[in-house]
Design a protein that fits this description.
alpha+beta, eight-stranded mixed sheet, HET-domain-containing protein, HET
Length: 368
């Protein structure tokens, strides 16, 4: 998929989507002065050479960035740390980065996008406060970025996504990025997606689906963009059930991240529906939400703290199973929620990790 035609197709789709106010009226983005805390600046020199560096605290409403959505496939030794942060403000050694990350550099440049956001490079993982703050800002990062470049067929960061494939065998194989839990919120919150597959690239926005070879693969665009991945005719509660049931089918390396990896979607729901969030649930009609059903477990129960103790038996966030709900209009809760509180680990991250909490119910009890 690495060719000048590929890059030209991606650039043409983006240009059309951003400037055709008639055909892409659904895709118009409101002016917003948000910018991620850190971005990667991609520079093309007169000799054609590409270099990159980390930049911080950019201001202005004309800053355009792309996001990379990809599978880590294990720990990232090339991630930004407190030790190498200052050095990376000067230059980001591309030779030290995994192939998926180095592949996205020329794509970004060819699409005339100067800045790039990549989680492993733009978040400092050995600074817990920074991690919490950056995860809390993920909805804005993906929603206000000009597009997300998806390395959908690479199962690890070292595989890359621009190499050519000789056969079409992989075209019908499971798509790695659709199995990773962290990638779910990246995919549905993005404004536009350029999806790099084994044999083609696809364009996904609110107004259009297209492919450089003319064959739109429906499997490759599953769960893309929240407006199309969730039926807008459903109630907010039913939409959340749909999101969680799809999300919990995906693989999670650390089960303790289960609440964090969907926190950006929770932030989106809170903004859209004016609901109060409590560690994987919403206070409105909370009793009905407790009636989730577990599917087949994928991992053993984690031994670390994820959610309040009252949630150990009542929260989907504390188990490794996929979950779903069978809620009908005539279902009447047998309990009344009197009060529910959680204490956040970070006050600036209302959809992130919690330290403790409680749930007070009123109900009839039976002696056993």
């Amino acid at each position: 998929v690495k060719s000048q035609r590929t890059f030209e197709a991606a650039k043409a789709w983006l240009t059309e989507c951003m400037h055709d106010c008639v055909s892409h009226s659904q895709c118009l983005q409101k002016r917003n002065d948000f910018a991620p805390t850190r971005l990667i600046e991609v520079l093309r020199h007169l000799d054609g050479k590409l270099t990159a560096r980390l930049v911080q605290d950019l201001k202005g409403d004309r800053i355009r960035w792309a996001c990379l959505s990809y599978c880590w496939g294990g720990d990232q030794p090339s991630k930004t740390t407190k030790a190498n942060f200052t050095e990376r403000l000067e230059t980001l050694p591309l030779v030290d980065l995994p192939k998926t990350i180095t592949d996205v550099i020329p794509v970004t440049s060819q699409m005339d996008i100067r800045y790039l956001w990549i989680d492993a490079l733009c978040i400092i993982p050995d600074n817990p406060d920074d991690v919490a703050c950056e995860i809390a800002s993920m909805p804005e990062v993906y929603m206000h970025g000009v597009c997300t470049i998806s390395a959908s067929q690479a199962s690890t960061s070292v595989e890359g996504f621009l190499q050519d494939h000789q056969t079409d065998e992989m075209h019908h194989q499971p798509i790695p990025i659709h199995k990773r839990a962290w990638c779910y919120q990246e995919r549905i919150l993005s404004s536009r997606i350029v999806d790099f597959g084994h044999t083609q690239i696809q364009w996904i926005c609110k107004s259009k689906r297209d492919a450089d070879d003319g064959r739109v693969d429906r499997a490759a665009i599953t769960d893309a963009l929240i407006e199309s991945s969730v039926n807008n005719l459903l109630s907010p509660q039913e939409r959340w059930f749909d999101v969680v049931s799809k999300y919990t089918r995906r693989d999670m390396t650390f089960v303790g991240d289960r609440v964090l990896a969907v926190s950006a979607v929770a932030a989106y729901f809170a903004l859209q529906f004016d609901c109060e969030y409590v560690a994987g649930f919403w206070k409105d009609k909370l009793a009905l939400q407790l009636a989730w059903i577990a599917g087949r477990p994928k991992y053993s129960r984690p031994g670390i703290y994820i959610a309040p103790s009252w949630q150990v038996r009542s929260s989907w966030a504390c188990i490794s199973d996929s979950v779903f709900w069978t809620i009908s209009d005539d279902l009447v809760p047998a309990v009344e929620v009197v009060d529910c509180r959680v204490h956040l680990r970070h006050s600036f991250a209302p959809f992130g990790a919690v330290t403790n909490g409680y749930l007070l119910l009123r109900a009839q009890i039976r002696e056993m």
